[in-house]
Design goal:
It comes from Rhodospira trueperi. InterPro entries: BolA, BolA-like_sf, BolA/IbaG_stress_morph_reg. Belongs to the BolA/IbaG family. There is one protein chain. The chain is of the alpha+beta class. It has one domain: BolA-like (GMP Synthetase, Chain A, domain 3), CATH 3.30.300.90. The chain has 2 helices and 3 strands; from the N terminus they run H-E-E-H-E. It has a 3-stranded mixed beta sheet. The radius of gyration is 12 Å and the shape is globular.
Length: about 80
Amino acid sequence: MAMDAGTLESMIKDAFPDARVSIDDMVGDGNHYAANIVAEAFRGKTRVQQHQMVYAALKGKMGGDLHALALQTRAPE
């Protein structure tokens, strides 16, 4: 099962409404994405905590509908 980029972006934006999000389908199969997310919610959090926040926003889709997600996360400058 695959997830389209629009759904992935919507789930992230639902959790982080102020976020700037860019999604890249790395191999064109709807299962391998790279996401760059800039959100104020990440300020003061470690990279691991930021990624955990994104995984929580995906509500269990990671490892099921979504096979691989390379994350770049940070707070705005």
